[in-house]
Amino acid sequence: MSTIIDTFIAPTCHDKIEYLYQDEHLLVINKPSGLLSLSGKNPQNIDSVHYRLVPLFPECTLVHRLDFGTSGVMVIALNKAINRALCQQFSQRTVTKAYDALLCGHLQNDSGVIEAPIAKDPQHFPRMSISTTQGKAARSYYQVIERFYQTLADGTRLPLTRVRLTPETGRTHQLRIHCQYIGHPILGCDLYGGLLLSGTEHTPRLMLHACELHFIHPVSEQPMDIYLPSPF
């Protein structure tokens, strides 16, 4: 078995973490695009959500993660008991998440479900792959919000579709690889074809944003319904 070497070096992220909700038990933040959720194995990748929050909240732990390029809503547990309670909600799939995304091209259908099992791809780290033999079951739903053309500097009209994505499962890179699987990669996605369409190669970020998170507060037992508009 070959050793996986992480050669990715994250560029400096100057954007700050925005607090959306805070109490003594948990924190809900807006993670900026271009910031790691956790510090990487590569010693040059120290800056992350966790790295920035630990000095302020020494016992904080990440209940879930967002990819480096993804922005939006994340919930942070401020002690181990809250982490366990929230992790249980995620594992039981009682937490609802929704994402806004810009996809390359115009989707034919207004809505649909994507079912394709996802597996690690050690030969092409950090990519994942679709595998009916090795993959874990993964299901995502999409709803088209609008189809439009973006006019580029050279006059080229780039066809894009704005969608709302709702993952039922939470596999690594699930939404990114599922969108590629149906032939419409997320704009700006370097791993799964989002920079291949002519005119997309200079896209400034991954056009994927965690816009909604719904869970039950482990202590108050009140519904937590977090909404965060897309920045793109």
From TrEMBL:
GO molecular function: catalytic activity, acting on RNA; pseudouridine synthase activity; RNA binding
Domain of life: Bacteria
Similarity-based family: Belongs to the pseudouridine synthase RluA family.
Limits of the Pseudouridine synthase RsuA/RluA-like domain: 25-180
Name of the protein this chain belongs to: Ribosomal large subunit pseudouridine synthase
Top enzyme class: isomerase
SUPFAM superfamilies: Pseudouridine synthase
EC number of the protein: 5.4.99.-
Single Gene Ontology BP annotation: enzyme-directed rRNA pseudouridine synthesis
Gene name, Swiss-Prot/TrEMBL: rluA
Organism: Proteus mirabilis (strain HI4320)
PANTHER family in the cross-refs: MITOCHONDRIAL RNA PSEUDOURIDINE SYNTHASE, RNA PSEUDOURIDYLATE SYNTHASE DOMAIN-CONTAINING PROTEIN 1
Keywords: Isomerase
Pfam families in the cross-refs: PseudoU_synth_2
